């Protein structure tokens, strides 16, 4: 029987209170991991999730940090490991939100925010957590990318620029630290159904779904399932991968 068992591991999820992050947090805990929940402003949700994870018999802590700042990420590491010990699994899920528009109209600051929250967050997380993983000869670094990085559709430019830059960092990092038993991978969601959609009854989008080979939108749980798989020993020989979880809406080529 195939089983995902993360018992004895500690995971950190940046953007852990977000629509996708909260389901990753719950699923990691259900698979046995202790979980550090990063948040930026939604402390109420972070506390709710922490208590939910503890009710499952796991250890959990919350940490607030600006993931675009190196000092904040290193302080987050100290706080997280002070409460739960070494972090084995790092999931870079947080990203700055902004209003999308055309290249000609997009504010330059939006490109900066995407670079900082996609590329530099990934770099700072690696600098903070990879050395400990190297010492222990085990680790998982998982970035949440997007199908948009392959679509390159109008109004996506700042987001695509940030995520494609993130992709480059992850591919190089996978080659640099693989010899230490650390895998580095990316999950690229499509337009995903989340708790917000269920509350607002906005799960369906016939225009989008009609172009998806599986003819539906994915769910937040399906994204979390891919994350815990990559975090587990079932994926011990997968690294440097960019895995779309979008029903085939975009397909990497060889």
Automatic annotation (TrEMBL):
Which species expresses this protein natively?
Cohnella faecalis
- Assigned keywords, A-Z: Oxidoreductase
Example GO molecular function: oxidoreductase activity
One Gene Ontology term of the biological-process aspect is:
bile acid metabolic process
| Any single Pfam family the record assigns to this protein | adh_short_C2
Q: Which family does it belong to?
A: Belongs to the short-chain dehydrogenases/reductases (SDR) family.
Q: What is this protein called?
A: SDR family oxidoreductase
């Amino acid at each position: 029987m195939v089983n995902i068992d993360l018992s004895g591991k500690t995971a950190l999820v940046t953007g852990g209170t977000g629509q996708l992050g909260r389901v990753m947090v719950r699923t990691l805990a259900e698979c046995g991991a202790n979980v550090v929940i990063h948040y930026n402003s939604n402390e109420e949700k972070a506390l709710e999730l922490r208590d939910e994870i503890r009710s499952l018999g796991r250890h959990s802590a919350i940490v607030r940090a600006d993931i675009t700042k190196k000092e904040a990420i290193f302080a987050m590491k100290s706080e997280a490991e002070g409460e739960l010990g070494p972090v084995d699994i790092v999931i870079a899920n947080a990203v700055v939100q902004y209003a999308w528009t055309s290249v000609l109209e997009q504010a330059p600051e939006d490109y900066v925010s995407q670079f900082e929250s996609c590329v530099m967050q990934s770099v700072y997380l690696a600098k903070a957590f990879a050395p400990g993983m190297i010492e222990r000869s085990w680790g998982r670094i998982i970035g949440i990318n997007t199908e948009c990085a392959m679509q390159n559709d109008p109004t996506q430019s700042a987001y695509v620029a940030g995520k494609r830059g993130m992709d480059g960092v992850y591919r190089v990092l996978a080659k640099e630290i693989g010899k230490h038993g650390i895998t580095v991978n990316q999950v690229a969601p499509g337009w995903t159904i989340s708790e917000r959609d269920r509350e607002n009854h906005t799960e369906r989008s016939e225009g989008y779904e009609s172009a998806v080979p599986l003819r539906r939108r994915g769910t937040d749980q399906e994204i979390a399932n891919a994350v815990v798989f990559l975090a587990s020993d079932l994926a011990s020989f997968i690294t440097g991968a960019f895995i779309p979880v979008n029903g085939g809406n975009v397909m990497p080529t060889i």
